[in-house]
Amino acid sequence: MDSVDVVLLTLNSERKLEDCLTSVYKNVPVAQLIVIDGGSSDRTLDILRKFDEKYHNVKVVPDRGTRATARQKGIQNVTTAWFLFVDSDVVLCNNWFKKAAKYLDSDVGAVWGIEVWSTIQNQAMLKMFLWVTRKIFDLRGGTHDTLIRTEAVKNIHIPASLHVFEDAYLMDWVRSQGYRVLACYNPFCIHYRPKTVWTLQGSLNLIIESLRFGSCKLLAKLGLAYGFYTAYAIYQILDSNKSKP
Fold first, then answer.
1. Relative orientation angle of helices 123-140 and 166-176, to the nearest 10 degrees
2. pLDDT tens for each residue of 144-197
3. pTM score, two decimals?
4. 4-193 has which CATH code?
């Protein structure tokens, strides 16, 4: 495989976008960078123009719908046999693509690299986090850094209402086409979640969004794992407040 398309969803993503794209171009053979933009009004488009001037392969496609419509539009613009979904606030590990390529057997439809939150420093906490995150992927999938066989999703129609859990639909679809979905500890990405997540209101907003768009059945299965995430968010909030003068 010579190169792959990379699909990136953006909406006012300037905070980590430059670091994200630097890691993408360093660690992935990019055929074209397909950016589905939800109407950014910050420096996002300027940053994308900068990378297009350097690499001449950035394609920006507007979409003001949901994450589902954005991912659907991204898939429709893919031209390579495999493509990579990357979140705009992650940084890929070194040699991400080379590590993922080792898993590309004929029956594999997707390879997911685990995410690691940038705020985690404690080794015991990291070990627990990786275990919980791996369990969550088995239930709902993930697209922070996921390499997907284009053939496996060529006929997919992601319901437009799925503003969250569209990744669960995507991974279930790949499996329904007879392919395996592999979750890996290496490659991986570092996820730089926004500081607003580590506030009480930010944590509540994430829970409300999941309740609003997610199925009760799936949320019930994710309850224990999300409980760990909530506990960690509360820990971060308390630790942050303790550090303030």
1. 60
2. 999 999 999 999 999 998 888 899 899 999 999 999 999 999 999 999 988 766
3. 0.86
4. 3.90.550.10
